[in-house]
Amino acid sequence: MRLSKLALCIASVSLPVMAQTNSSEQPKLTTNLDAVTVTATRTEKTALNSSQAVNVISAENIEDVLATTVFDSLIAVPNVTATGGPRAGGQKFSVRGFNDAEDVLVSVDGAIQTFEKYRMGSFFGDADLYRTVSIKRGPSTVLHGGGALGGVVEMEFKDASDFLAPDQTAGAKIKLGHHGNNNENNGSVYAYARPTDSLDILAAYIKRQSDDFELSNGEALDNSAIEAESLLLKGEYYLTDDSLIGLSYSQSEDAQRTEFNTTDPGAWGTVYRRVKQSVTNLSYELNPVNNKYLDLAVRFGNSQSHVTETDGQGMLEDYIGVESHYEYNINTLDIMNTSILGKHALTYGVQYSDKERVGDKQSYPCLEYNMQTYACLEYGNELIYSQMTSQPGGKQKRIGVYIQDEFTWQALTLTGGVRYEEYRSTPTALFDSHYSELDTKVEHSKVVPAVTVNYQFTEQFAVFASYQEGFRAPLIDELYDLYGGRNPNLALETENSQNQEIGMSYQTDNVFSDRDSLTGRVVYFDTQVDDEIQSNTSSVTNPAPAPRYNNSGSNDRDGFELEVNYAYSIGYVNLAYSEISGEDQDGEPLWYLPADKLALTAGLFFFDEALRTGISVQDIAERTVLAYDGATQSYKETQQDSYTLVGLNANWDINDFWSVRVAVDNLLDKEYQVMAGTGGAIGDYGVGRNIKTQVSFKF
Q1: What span, in angstroms and rounded, lies between the C-alpha atoms of 400 and 420?
Q2: Taking the model in full, what pTM does it have?
Q3: How far apart are CA 382 and CA 375, in angstroms?
Q4: pLDDT tens for residues 489-542?
Q5: Residue 247 in contact with residue 203, Cβ under 8 Å?
Q6: Cβ atoms within 10 A of the Cβ of 145, count?
Q7: Residues 640, 654: contact at Cβ < 8 Å?
């Protein structure tokens, strides 16, 4: 087990303090780990009592820091961060070092949201749209399906109930804000109503416009301006006291000239890029009060991600052509029910999704090519349509069935489950026509188990252990990639993982007075990945026309996560610490793993919570990375420096109508560099000091 002295010291100091406190009958103040979630077990539990590494980021957490994207609010979540750099269009979720879109399953109101493109991020929704962001660390394949090797990120849209006062039937809220660093102006309008006792309606519009960011080294981040807008329409209607139907539609769009490479440093050239993501959800819930066997949820979702690039500059002119288009269209159907049978809570269901991937472009053919400058010297006159060999299109259908039994007997809770999932992948008709002699339709299937044991020694103290298997099927581009004249690899197998965790949790009231509460959780995990699908484009070790992708890798990683949260009637203190390390099949370190992180967030409330203030301190340790040395044209080990970031925030509810917020990121204007989105290298410099303000009015 690879644990640092700091981790052992924190654990040895914190846990005895937690264990010496006493319980009381006084009402409990809530901490971060008391947030209710269904991400881990599909049955409502607090994040602490789920016996899983789950965190819930609330709308209040997002608004406190005046976040532009969800990635801005990940400070206090252990072993979860963003990779890819300061540009919103270049960021991806990294959960326990899994930082590719295919390894972290993301859903919005139940609809799977996936996008993957070379040197670009994967999620673009505005942070102001969401009421909660639940993050489950570690595999969650039994309940959520393949592609959750690193974890699951589930987002839930805001609805009218988040704004309506108890006796209010209609209202509106307007927010106007400014960010000083990039001269961003932003505005939000929310209109909400409850015209009848059975119907809730919400409409929201958000717009952001800015100049380029100023980085922590004092330089401007060229082509990082924002020109984005988002729309949300959501309604819920109670058919009866026991049944509910919901419908929502959201759309986020950004259009501007930007760097082709938004995930890593280096000049690649610019393109005019239009990004549009939309999510449509239809849901039905049935939960009769006196029926223990029926707690039904049915969700149908459609998510679409479209990226269009034009006007490529320099060497990108030929690559982009007149217009390049990348697209993901995903339909999701999720049917789930929970039945209570004595001491057993049975959760079972079926999930179906079909994903269409598009990668094509229109261009004029190059008649004469300069091999030294990579520039076309003469073009043809006839516009042609072609498919991207590096981003091949196709379709992939998935169906999964699962059952989970949560058995509780006295102080013991035993949760076990199993899932069967099947994938069917097909290429485009154009690909089929080139490989008519091959059976290009590929099928994969997998059965995965999971088991968690939780023992509640006292009302305050519990220990838990879990074993979960995960997997992901080969992606469309991994199966059908033809870039550089290579052959496809239709024999790719699933990538598999095994994850073991042990941990303990503690919760109590009345630690130092009758008005406080303490919660804590410690987790150690070990994850092994086998048959890892890797890309090898080396002309030496893998000469063309050999396939680019193979099941040639494996790795093992382990880590430690600690969370201690203290709440008092006039404030709170939250501590989160995480570290992770690992090796690949050759005994080499996993260079893309995040650095050790220590995060402290605290706040004080004044005037019956009319004024709320907060501070965050995030300490990121140094880490060793493998970087390319242009002088020697080889890779060598180097150090990414440690850094500490300090943030402040304050919110003043002047009266029932007016509120003012202030947040400061990187208060000390610390120079630092983030993790790049490719290979975990040293990325761009982070954003310099950013003073953000907002005024809101509701009526």
Answers
A1: 6
A2: 0.92
A3: 19
A4: 999 999 999 999 999 999 999 999 889 999 999 999 999 999 999 999 888 999
A5: no
A6: 28
A7: no
